[in-house]
């Protein structure tokens, strides 16, 4: 090989010699303070997105109750390792952490003239954690920790009574409900409550069906 060509090849290869492949991020595991508060995950928005709900309410509204003065979106994320386990088994492993993010609904943003989109500010953040076989709920605080809900809190008792899988509302996660159905991990309580077929998606023909 001519000297000039050899020198050019060497120079082109030099940047590769110093290149460092970033190490993969370690799997997320819930960690706690000495007082038992959950350390709030800071990168939950990089987790697997499951669904969004708007103005969801599990209690029937009284006929004479005034309409709400604002609307809220709920965005649900779960740590990737637990998501992959659920896809394979239809069940949630220890270390599962859901993050439920609340954002206000806003109108007249940019070119949008109808409907609502999500506001920039996070109005609330809750976690649902499975650790050592037990599920618990936490609400995020300003100091970077999340305070546990009492075991008698309505969120806990509601999930225990109506959840589709374990104590999780998989019935609201359209990509995961078919998996739980296929793996036969749906709870008896949910199957009893869902004996009536769910409503169709606005009567439209789906583009494709998920498994």
TrEMBL record:
UniProt keyword list: Signal
Name of protein: Cytochrome P460
Keyword Signal annotated: yes
Pfam families assigned: Cytochrome_P460
Record-annotated Cytochrome P460 domain positions: 41-169
Signal sequence bounds: 1-25
Domain of life of the organism encoding this protein: Bacteria
InterPro entries per UniProt: Cytochrome_P460, Cytochrome_P460_sp
Region (Disordered): 191-211
């Amino acid at each position: 090989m001519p000297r000039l060509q050899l020198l050019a090849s060497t120079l082109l290869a030099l940047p590769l010699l110093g290149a460092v492949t970033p190490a993969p991020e370690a799997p997320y595991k819930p960690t706690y303070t000495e007082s038992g508060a959950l350390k709030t995950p800071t990168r939950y928005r990089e987790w697997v997105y499951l669904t969004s709900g708007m103005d969801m309410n599990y209690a029937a509204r009284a006929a004479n109750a005034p309409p709400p003065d604002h609307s809220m979106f709920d965005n649900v994320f779960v740590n990737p390792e637990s998501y992959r386990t659920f896809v394979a088994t239809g069940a949630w492993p220890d270390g599962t952490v859901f993050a439920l993010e609340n954002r206000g609904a806003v109108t007249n943003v940019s070119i949008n003239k109808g409907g609502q989109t999500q506001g920039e500010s996070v109005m609330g953040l809750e976690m649902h954690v499975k650790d050592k076989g037990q599920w618990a709920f936490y609400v995020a605080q300003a100091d970077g920790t999340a305070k546990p809900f009492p075991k008698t809190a309505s969120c806990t008792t509601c999930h225990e009574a109506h959840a589709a899988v374990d104590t999780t509302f998989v019935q609201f996660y359209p990509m995961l409900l078919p998996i739980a159905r296929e793996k036969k991990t749906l709870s008896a309580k949910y199957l009893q409550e869902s004996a009536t077929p769910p409503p169709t998606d606005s009567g439209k023909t789906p583009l494709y069906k998920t498994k």
